Amino acid sequence: MSLSFVFLIIIFAAFCHAGWSTIVKKSENGLAMMGITSIIEIIIFLPLIFTVPFPKSSLWFFIFATTFLHGLYRYSVVKSYEYGDLSFVYPIARGGSVLVIGLISILILGVNINLIGIIGIVLICLGLFMISFLTAKKFNRSAFIIAITTASLIATYTILDGIAVRRSENAFTFIYWMLLLNGIPMLIYAFFSETGLRKKNSYNVRDGIAAGILAILGYGLVVWSMQFIEIAYVSSIREISIVLATLLSFYLLKEADSQKRVVPSIIICTGITILYFQIT
Fold this sequence. Notes:
Strand content: under 5%
Helix content: over 70%
Distance between the termini: 11 Å
Number of domains: 1
Order of helices and strands: HHHHHHHHHHHH
Number of helices: 12
């Protein structure tokens, strides 16, 4: 498998993830969008799990753990967008997760990341944090706390998913089961909550379907890529999505101060370019 091709797949997945995040933020009912996303995942992956080997017992720990963590993550995303602009919350959540994954990979998992690779990761984190704090009119403590919580959840499930897909005899066994189940906790909550799917006039089903497809591509391809490239590199490279997300937040969500994001975006792209030459 060409690593340049895998790199391009990660970039494509990053754009999909940015689109998913923007749809959730733009919607008047982000909880319903999460619920519809989960329904789309079930419709697509329920038949697909019968095309791959049944998970071995050792894999079920990862499947159940990531289902629980993804449920918390999706809930935290909905809540974080209620408290702050996409351009403030999203970069902190993503940048924080990149930093945590990098530290865990080096200090705990013993991954051999050289100085150039570390510089690339640090530049991406720096650019992400700059986008948040340079564009914020004032420090939003509630949004910051939720964003950091979201970052911790992203880092945890990303590492677990990366380990699981590498341990699977058939990578698609884990990927299909993970994508089938990870939205169920949020679907249950969205169904029973009075502010979720039951609030019928507050969301657009077509937007939810688009969000579901983008969510599948945005994360499924990332997990697939972790077979070939170090988890810390994959999680960092996919943050090119933040450059697109900040553009979308300006043009679609009408969030101001887009000019302040130019320099941070250049820093992020520089870091990703460095990582590209590290893996190819």
